[in-house]
Amino acid sequence: MNTMMNSKTLFIFFAAISILIACSQKNTLIDKQKKTIDVYGCIGNERPISLSEIAEEIEYIPLETSVNSVISNPADIILSNDLIYIKGRLTDPIMVFDKSGKFIRSIDRKGRSSEEYESIVSLDIDNNGIICIESTQKITEYKSDGTFIRNIFKNKDAGYRGFAKLNDNFYMFSSALGINMINSYSATDSESNVLWNHPFTPDETDILKTHPRAEMFKRPYRFKDKIMIAGGVWDYILSVNDKLEIDTAYFFNYGRFKLTKDNVKDLASTRNIITRQSDILESNRYLFLKYNIGNIAKNNGTTNSAEGVAKHQNLPLMHLYFDKQTGITSSLEPDPSKQWGFIDDFHNGPAIWPVSISDSNHMIAFVPALTFKEAFSGKDTNSKYAQMANSLSDNDNPVVIIVKLKNLSL
């Protein structure tokens, strides 16, 4: 009798364990599916997407144009602590405006002294409003008024280009592709001591030997209290905190168009391969991504430069956004004027695509003054933005766009 009872108990026990394992595996699969950015599934499924789908409100801010504040061609625009920072070309000064567009100051510390930088490779503003300027050999930090704070020196032998700062003692650097064939990322403290290295995978190494620029735009970025980095051949995104605790945040699906060591040799010819076109931008709820899809492209939209006269270039691009709440990836179709971006259904303005995401959960974009004028010309002359457009000259500074994004619902 006891033997039968024990056998029955063991059967029930193992059955329960099997059910728990099956449920755990199912939940893991569902969790991975919800965190998978389905690039492949978006091909051929582009649609016009209104800004109200992701946003709560939008504001256009013309930047003051004066002899001291002329902006030639913005490369980065960062909103931090109600200040707008504009980075132009490598040798341009950093231009600082307030949220009304009023010019505050320029920061130009180019030079070869210990408190200066040779050029601006990249720009970051940390959570405390510290300006962090990356040049070839170091990160130079300044207060918002341009007062020097300190230098963080790179490992000269590692060949890093691109960084993200998490706190005063944690910096993540990315490899300058084609130079460092060992580590794709390296974390250091403020004294340049290496805390952690993330090596290239064998597939990445093989790809880079054939085509050193095939894996561009792997610059790390800060999101809340973590640094986000790309893993594998853009197979996933890892999150790393200052305790070096690592987790897989997102996965990618490229289907049969995935870049591999076998097809990288065809990258310049057939172009039936998906490659990254820009850095990933992440908000509380969304990720924004841009890809070059070569001959796979269905629609060729146009992009605007920020020079005085808008210049257009047809590119085989795909613009996506990923909704963390739903796990759905959506692909944008160019707007009726063939410009890439979200359709401004708040004010019937120009198409909008982000250049950065602020810590305050705002999407930052810009358009040349001429594009802004064209978008609002012939509109209700009593409207705020029509009057604003009429006050601008074609060659005025760009108009910055600040969009309040939706948050995750509890």
UniProtKB/TrEMBL annotation:
Species of origin: bioreactor metagenome
Name of this protein: 6-bladed beta-propeller
